[in-house]
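[Automated response] Your request has been received and processed.

Submitted sequence:
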Amino acid sequence: MRFFVIIIFCLLSVSLLAGKPLADWPQFRGPNGNGYIGKLNHPIEWSKKKNLSWSESIPGGGWSSPIVVGDRVFLTTAVDSNNTKPLDHAGGVRNMRGKKASEPFAFKVICISLIDGSVQWRKDIAVETPKFPIHASNTYATESPVTDGKYLYCYFAAIGRVVALDMDGKLNWSVYVGAFPGGNGFGTGSSLAYKSGKLFLQCDNDKDSFVLSLDANTGNESWKRKRSSSTSWSSPFIWTNSERTDLVVCGSGTVTGYDPVSGKTHWRLTNASSAFTASPASNSSHIFLGNSSPRGQGPLIAINSKINGESSLDISNLSEGITWGHLRGGPGMASPVVSGGHLFVCSRGFLSCYNTKTGERSYKSRLPSTKSITASLWANDKYVFLMDESGKAFVIQSGPKFKVVGENQLEDLFWSTPAVSNGALLLRGANKLYCIRK
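Generated structure:
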C-alpha cells in the first residue's frame, strides 16, 4: 500500500511539473523586450486545421499585444456600440484622415485562460469618448500592458489613463497622465516598460511630449522629463549593458538614453531622421535601431555601451558610441530582431540581414506574395518569424543566406505583435485571439 501511495505521489508530481509554465511573457516583445524567444517551444507549422489549440473572439478594437502570467493571458480593447474594428493598410490609406470618435468607448482589460481560451474575467477601466482622432487602421487600445507578476499595468493613451490591477482584475490604482493629439490624426501606440518597481511611459505627441516614470506600487510620479520630440510610436526600451542601464526612448529625429532611477539624460543622439515607429532590437553588447517614413528608409545604426553625452548622427563620421550605421536601412513599422550573430530588418516587403558585429548586409530579399507587415519579428537562434497583416507567417532560416523554410496562414487581420509562452504562440487578430500549440 505504501509503495502504491509513493507511485501515485510521483505521478502527480510529474504531472504538476509538466503543467508548469516554461516562461511568462510579461511585456511587449517578451521578457527582454527584444523579440528573442530563446529555446523554441512553439510549433513552426500552423493553420486553421493544424496546431490551432483554440481561438476566442475579442470584442471591439485593439492592437495591444497579449501578455502572459502563468496560465493566464491578458489583453486590452476598446469597444463602442458598433463593435468597431480597425481596417487593413489599404483601407486605412483610403481613409487616411483620422476620424474622431462620435460616441463613448468602453476601455476594457480581458483575462483569458491559456489552457482552453475561456474568458476568466473582464474589467471596464473607463467609458469615455476619446478627444482625438485615430487612423482607420489604428485602435484606441494599441498600447501593450506590462506585468511584474503581481500586478497588471495598462495604459490607454487615448484617454490618458494608467491603471494597476491585480491578477483577478481588482483595481489597485488609477492615474490620469493626460491625452494629447497625435501627428496627422494617426493616434497612439507606445507601450509601457517596467524595471525594478518603476513604470516608464513615453508620450511623444504634437502638443506636450514627455517621458514619465511612475511608482508601480502607488502610481505616484517618480520623475518626469519634457521632450522636444513630436509624435512617435516607438516604445521605451530598457537596455542593460556593460556600463549601466539605460531607458532608451526613440523620438522624432532623436534617440535618448535616460537613467531609469533619476531621469537624468545619459546620452542623446540627434539628426536621426524622422519619427520612430519600430522599437529597438538588442543583443548582449548593442542596441540596433532605425526608422523609415512615407518618403523612404531612414538610417539603421548599432549603438554600443560607450555612447555618452550629446552627439549628432553622421553616418560618414560615426562617433565612438556608434559601432556601425547605414544611411538607408531602417525598419518600417515592424521592430527588428537579432538571431544568432545577425540582425533582421523588415521594410516595404523586403527582409534584410546584417552582421551584428560589422554591419555588413548579407542580403536584401523580397518576401514572396506578402502584404503590409506591422507585427514585430520574433526569433530564436535557428529561425526568424514574421507575419503580414493577412495572417501569412513566414519561417526564415537564420543566418546569412535567405531561405524560407515555411509559410503558415490564418484568416484574420493581424497588426498585433505575438506573444510566446509555455509552448504556445498567441496571435491576436482584429477579430480573435488564436493559440498555436501542439
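Summary generated for your ticket: The first strand starts at residue 52 and ends at 57. The CA atoms of residues 32 and 126 lie 30 Å apart.
If you did not submit this request, please reply to this message.
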